[in-house]
Write a structure and sequence with these properties.
The complex is a heterodimer of chains A (114) and B (114). By secondary structure, chain A is mainly beta. Chain A has no helices and 11 strands. The chains are: A mainly beta (114), B mainly beta (114).
Chain lengths: 114, 114
């Protein structure tokens, strides 16, 4: 019974392509997040949605567009992929979105751009 | 500007001994701190947290100590077990900030030797 799931687990694609990563949580949480873990292992927040509303949008190229069709889903679409987009992307969720709420992470999606 | 730092990328400890993982932060506004554990090919999982109104929090074999004046926290694992071998991330947030986000360190890889 996976709490936070992501698909696909691995994604290999060519530069310039457009790709999407999907995330679903079955915890009934209100808030979902996307994080990027780069080659230096630095885990950095990209976006956060609370009740389908965007509340955090860090300095991320506008080639990245999150979409939240409902509270349980937060997808990440990336246009015109670049080599530097290669990373592991983690989805997470939390109950209310307070900065003291525990965040529950998905298993990650390893994106490789060739 | 990395506001949360884990200066030891790796640590090896004998089974049964104490593991001490360290974390430093620069932003004095941080008042809530967490430790996450990550196994390969999995997402980070929550381990333990501490609010700045405390200087110690304990949960079984895991204890987190906070030294606000030094802007330093540490995670003690006693006794260490081979199953504790993982990457440990510390994270910090500002409660009540409305930003809903954690700032993570780069992690310390702990290896517990049997």
């Amino acid at each position: 019974d996976t709490a936070v799931s992501q698909t696909p687990k691995y994604l290999v694609t060519q530069m310039g392509n457009d790709k999407s990563i999907k995330c679903e949580q079955n915890l009934g949480h209100d808030t979902m997040y996307w994080y990027k873990q780069d080659s230096k292992k630095f885990l950095k927040i990209m976006f956060s949605y609370n009740n389908k509303e965007l509340i955090i949008n860090e300095t991320v190229p506008n080639r990245f567009s999150p979409k939240s069709p409902d509270k349980a889903h937060l997808n990440l679409h990336i246009n015109s992929l670049e080599l530097g987009d290669s990373a592991v992307y983690f989805c997470a969720s939390s109950q209310r979105g307070s900065s003291t709420d525990t965040q529950y992470f998905g298993p990650g999606t390893r994106l490789t751009v060739l | 500007d990395q506001q949360v730092k884990q200066n030891s990328p790796s640590l090896s400890v004998q089974e049964g001994r104490i593991s001490i993982l360290n974390c430093d932060y620069t932003n004095s506004m941080f008042d809530y701190f967490l430790w996450y554990k990550k196994y390969p090919a999995e997402g980070p999982t929550f381990l333990i947290s501490i609010s700045s109104i405390k200087d110690k929090n304990e949960d079984g074999r895991f204890t987190v100590f906070l030294n606000k004046s030094a802007k330093h926290l540490s995670l003690h694992i006693v006794p260490s077990q081979p199953g504790d071998s993982a990457v440990y991330f510390c994270a910090a947030s500002i409660s009540g900030s409305g930003t809903y986000k954690y700032i993570f360190g780069t992690g310390t890889r702990l290896k517990v030797l049997a």
